[in-house]
Amino acid sequence: MVLAVSQVSESETRPGPRRVAGSSAPAARAFQADRFLQFIDVKKSYDHKTLVVKGFSLDVAEGEFITLLGPSGSGKTTILMLLAGFESVTGGEIQINGTPITRLAPYKRNIGMVFQNYALFPHMSVVENLAYPLKVRNLDRRDIDSRVEEYLSLVELSGFGNRHPAQLSGGQRQRVALARALIFEPSLVLMDEPLGALDKKLREQMQFEITRLHSKLGFTVIYVTHDQTEALTMSDRVAVFNDGVVQQCATPDVLYEQPENAFVADFIGENNLIPGTVAEIAGDRVRVTLAGGQEVLTQRGDVSGTGTDCIVSVRPEKMFIKPSDHAYDSEITACFIVRHYVGDFIRYYFELPDGSEVTIKVLNDLAAPKFDEGQNAQLIWQASDCFAFRAT
Amino acid sequence: MADIALAAPPAATRLTREEAGFARRELTRRRLVAFGLVAPLLIFIGFAFFAPITTMLHRSVYNPTVVELIPDTLTVLEAWSGEGTPAPEILTSMAVDLKRLANERTSGKLAEELNRGLPGTSSLVKSTARKLRRAEDAALATDGATLLLDANPKWAEPELWQTVRKVGRTYTDTYFLTALDLERDAAGSIGARQSARIYVQLYTKTLRIALVITVLTLLLGYPLSYCLANAPARTANILMVFVLLPFWTSLLVRTTSWIALLQTNGVVNSVLMSIGITSEPLEMMFTEFATIVAMTHILLPFMVLPLYSVMRGIDPSYMRAALSLGSSPIPAFIRVYFPMTLPGLSAGALLVFIISVGYYITPALVGGTDGQMISNIIAFHMQQSNNWELAAALGSLLLLLIIGLYWVYDRLVGADNIKLG
Predict the structure, then answer these.
(1) Could you tell me if A100 and A204 lie in one domain?
(2) Chain A, nearest residue to B328 by Cα
(3) Among the partner residues B323, B331, B336, nearest to A121 by beta-carbon distance
(4) What was the ipTM of the complex prediction?
(5) Can you tell me the distance from the alpha carbon of A302 to that of A390, in angstroms, rounded to the nearest whole number?
(6) What confidence tens digit (pLDDT) does each residue in B129-149 have?
C-alpha cells in the first residue's frame, strides 16, 4: 500500500521524461503546475476498519478534463462523492484554489454534478430544472429566464423547455442534466458515469457534445467512468484506479503506450502478459527469460532486480508473424491454435511452450498468413514496444 | 418481371377463407380462456359487492310493509282530499283491514310503521285492532266507520290519515330526509326536523375525526417512512416488521389493549399519577380522544406502507443533485423530495381517511357516546331499533359522501398520482 501511495505521488510531482515524451497540447497545459484542485493524501473508510480510498493525491489544473478510470469497486465514485461533499473525508484534504473544502457543506461548494441517472427533478419542467440552481441563488427573474434560454440553446434543446423529463429521450435528458450542472457556472463539474445508460451511438454523440462544451466554456471536469474508450478519447489526463489507489495518472497516449505497471498494461486496451524471470537489467533495457525458456529483450517497467519474477507485456498489434518487413529485436516460437476473423483485422491465437496464450492482431490484407492447427510460427516485436513489469 | 414483383405482395398478405377461419377460432378461444380466468372474480364481486350495495340503496327508498298490510284502505284513501275526516267508506275499509290484521297477528307491524311516522300511534293501532277483532264481519262491512271511531275517536283526526298516506307509499324519501335531519311537513314541503337532530352533526363529527386521524397518521408516518426508506436494507426490514406487527395481531386485541392503557385505573393514568403529573385519574376512556388515539395507532400502517414504497423508489441522487446545485437541505427537501413523495402521501391519506370514515369496531369499544361515529349509528339501526331502511339511507349517504370526496380529490390531485407500491 505504502509503495502504491508513493508511486502515485511520484507520478504526480515528478516532471518525468514520460510526460514530456507524450506531450500533446493538453498534457502541456496540465504540466503548468497550476494547482486549481488538489487532493492531498485523501483517505476514506466507510466502516472504520478498511480504507476504500487509500491515500489519493492528485493535482488538477484549471480547465483540465480528468477522468478517473477503474473497474467497479475501485473507489473512483467515492472520490467524486468526497469531492462533492456527500461523503466525509476520513483523512487528508481537498483544496480548491488553495482553500480547503473538506469540511464545507455540499451546497456551499459550488460544484456542478452530472449523475448517472441524470437526477432531473421529475415534477419540474426542463426550464424549472435549469432555473433551480439560479433560483436558490436568488437571481433576478429576468436574468434567470435569459440564462435558461441561453443554456437550452447551448445544449441544442431550445423549444423543449416546457417538457417534463419523462417526455424526453435519454440523450435529451443527458443534455438537460449537463446544462443544469453548468448553468450556475460552477468552478468544477463532476460527472459520474454520465453516459452509462445510453446506447453506443448516442454515447459517442454525447462524448462529442461534452468535449465541445468543455472546450467552449473551459470548465474543469472530473469524469468517472469504467469505459476506457470514453476515458481515452475525452480526457486530458486519465487516472487509472484500482484497489483504492491510483495506479497511473497520465495522458491517454502515455497511458496506452507506456503503462507503469502490469495492472495498467492489462486494464488499458488489450495486452499479452507473458510470465518470465528477469535475467539482466542494463539501463533502460531488460533481458527476460520467459517461462518456456526463450529469451526476449524489453523496456524496463517497474521490475526491481535480477532474478525476480516478472511479466512481459506486448500489445497484440505490436507483434508480427514472420515473414514480415517489420524490424525486430525479440523473437519467440509459438504454436498456432486458431484465428478469428473480426473484419478489419484477424486475431491469431498462439500458445507458448509454457502454456500461456498470445494474441496477435493482423490487418486483414493479403499478407495475413494461414496456419494449420499445431503449426509453429515465429513471432517478432521491437523491445521499445514491450515492457517488463513486476509480477503481482 | 416488375409486374410479378408488384402483384405478389397483396396475394401473400391476404388470408384464405380457411386461414381466416383458423385465426378467428384461435382468437375466440383466447377470449374464452381469458374470460374464464376472470369469471370467478367477476361473479364474486357481483355476488358479494354489487348485489348487497344495490340492495342497500334500494332498501333506503323502498318501503312495502304498509302497502302489503292495508292495500285496500290505501286504494280508497287516494280519494281523500287530505283535509277533514276521510269519508266513511275509507274508515270502514280501515276497520276491515284492522280486524284482518288482528286475526293474522300482524297489527303490531302496522303499529310500528305508523308510530315511526307519527309518534304515539302505536297503542292506538294496537288497541283498536284488539277491539275490532271481536266485531262481526257483517257489522264491520256496513258500519265499520262508526265502530272504528267508537274504538278510538282519534281515527277522526286528519293528521293520522296523512301519516297513513305517507307511510303507505312504496317508494319514499323519508329515510333520506331523516338521515339528513329533514322532514316533510303536512303540506309536503321539506324543512328542518323538529325532533332530535343528530345525523348531520354525526356526519360532521365523523369527518372531523377522520381528518384528525389522517393528519396524525401523516405526522407520525412521514418521518417514520423516511427513516425506513433511508435505512440500510437489513435495519429497514427489521423496523418494517414492527410496522407490520399490528397487522398480524387481531384488531380486537389491539383495541382492547388500548382499553387497558386508557381506562381510569389503566397504565397511562397509573404512570401519570405515580410520577406526580396528575393528582387524580384523567377520564380518557369512552371519549373522542380514545377513539382518535386507538384508530391512529391501528391505521398507521396504511399510511406508512404506501409512503415507504414511494420513498424507497426515490433515488438519493435527487437530493444530492439539489444540494450540489446550491440548495440548502431544508429547501431542497421541500422543493425536491417532498413533491416526489406526494403520490404515496395522497394514497396513504386517502386510504386512512376512507377507512376511518367507515370505521366501526374501535369507536364502538373505546368511544363511549362521545366518540361514536356514523357507522355506530348505522349498526344501532340495524341491530337494535330494527330500522333497516334508515340504516340503508345512512349507509348510502356515507357512500355518496366518500364518492364525492374522491371526486374532489381526483380534481385536486388526480387519481393517477396515487401510488400504493
Answers:
(1) yes
(2) A107
(3) B336
(4) 0.79
(5) 6
(6) 888 888 888 888 888 888 888
